[in-house]
Amino acid sequence: MATGRPVRLVLDASLLLDPSSTREAAAVALRPGVEELLRRLRYSNLSVAICYAEGMPTNEVLY
Q: Domain of life of the organism in this record (predicted)?
């Protein structure tokens, strides 16, 4: 049932990033299926935010 209020979704970066990838790698590895999830969320009407650990650089590009 639609309430008219905006829907917000907060994802933790640990759910998106592959734990076997190293921080020193040139690109951050995503878990299998995450690219499709992010693609679908991009075209949804949801407001999406990604939270990350304090030590994680803010210039990491997830998609």
A: Eukaryota
- At residue 44, what are phi and psi to the nearest 5 degrees? -85, 175
32 part of a folded domain? yes
pLDDT level of residue 59 (50, 70, 90 thresholds): low
Residue 35 domain-assigned (yes or no): yes
Number of residues written out for the chain: 63
Q: In this predicted model, what pLDDT tens digit does every residue of 19-44 receive, in sequence order?
A: 776 555 556 688 899 889 988 988 88
Residue of 5, 11, 3 lying closest to 37 (CA atoms): 11
Distance CA 55, CA 59 (A): 12
Q: Are 18 and 9 in contact (CB under 8 A)?
A: no
